[in-house]
Structure formats: structure tokens, C-alpha cells
Amino acid sequence: MELQTVYPFRLPKGYLDGEGTLHREGRMRLATAGDELSALRDPRVKADESRLNALILSRVVTMLGTLEEVTPEVVEGLFISDMEFLQNMYDTINKAEKPQIQVTCPHCGEKFVDTINFQGAG
Predict the structure, then answer these.
(1) How many Å separate Cα 83 from the centre of its chain?
(2) Is the dihedral of CA 15, 67, 20, 8 positive or negative?
(3) Domain positions in the chain
(4) How far apart, in whole angstroms, are the C-alpha atoms of residue 15 and residue 80?
(5) H, E, C per residue of the chain
(6) What per-residue string of b and e applies to 13-25 under the rule 16 or more CB within 10 Å gives b?
(7) At what angle do helices 80-95 and 52-60 cross, to 10 degrees?
(8) Strand pairing of 61-64 and 6-16?
(9) Measured CA angle at 81 (ends 83, 73), to 5 deg
């Protein structure tokens, strides 16, 4: 069994850059202890703990649309629904071997476990 370390995603709304380009497709990698420790040591976090999530996400989101780099400022510029999406995705992929969810078939009512797809529909 191969360990999946990078997960593609599609943001619900997308990041709108300064030129008006919308970026929705991206990739997030599994976090390392170093990612969290580096963020905790960052002077911006020491001055304002609310920046912690943005710093961690900027380290683990490896691609967002055509942006050259995902910086803490990019993460802070996300719409709230997209920030929450990425925080939930981070928690899910870093706390489970394979991100899964209990679902119920809307047609037959059967319950089963399925792997979460972060790319969603269209």
C-alpha cells in the first residue's frame, strides 16, 4: 500500500488575485512536524496567534491555480468559506490514513464508508 502525501482540491469559491484571476484548483501535501514547529516559532505568530493557521496552510498548500507561490498573505486573502475548506481538509488528511466519511445512499438508504473527494463537482 502506497502512502498518499499530496491531495488535489477545488476551492468552493476560489482566490481572486490582484489582477482579477480566479484560482480554484490546488494541491495540499501532508504536514510535517517541522511545518507546525516553524509556524509556532514565526515572529508573526508570536505577535498574533490568529495568524498560525495561515502560516501552516501557506506551507502545505503547494499549488493554487497559476500562482507562483502560496504565501501567508494569499491564504489570508481567501474567502472565509475557502479558508474553512482548507482548514477542514488539513485536519482530515493529517489525522486519517485515508480521508473517509460515513455516507448514506440517497436512493437505497444503504450506509457505507467512502473516500473523501476534495475536488467536488464543477
Answers:
(1) 8
(2) negative
(3) 6-115
(4) 11
(5) CCCCCEEEEEEEEEEECCCCCEEEEEEEECCCHHHHHHHHHCHHHHHCHHHHHHHHHHHHEEEECCCCCCCHHHHHCCCHHHHHHHHHHHHHHHHCCCCEEEEECCCCCCEEEEECCCCCCC
(6) ebbeeeeeeebbe
(7) 70
(8) unpaired
(9) 35
Burial 29-56 (b: 16+ CB within 10 A, else e): bebeeebbeebeeeeebeeeeebebbbb
**What is the Cα 75 distance to its own chain's centre?**
10
User: Which residue type occupies 31?
Assistant: A
Q: Could you read off the pLDDT tens digit of each residue along the chain, which spans 122 residues? A: 577 889 999 999 999 999 999 999 999 999 999 988 888 888 888 888 888 999 999 999 999 999 999 999 999 999 999 999 999 999 988 886 666 778 888 999 998 887 776 766 55
**What is the pTM assigned to this prediction?**
0.75
- The cell for 44 is 508573526
Grid cell digits, residue 116 = 473523501
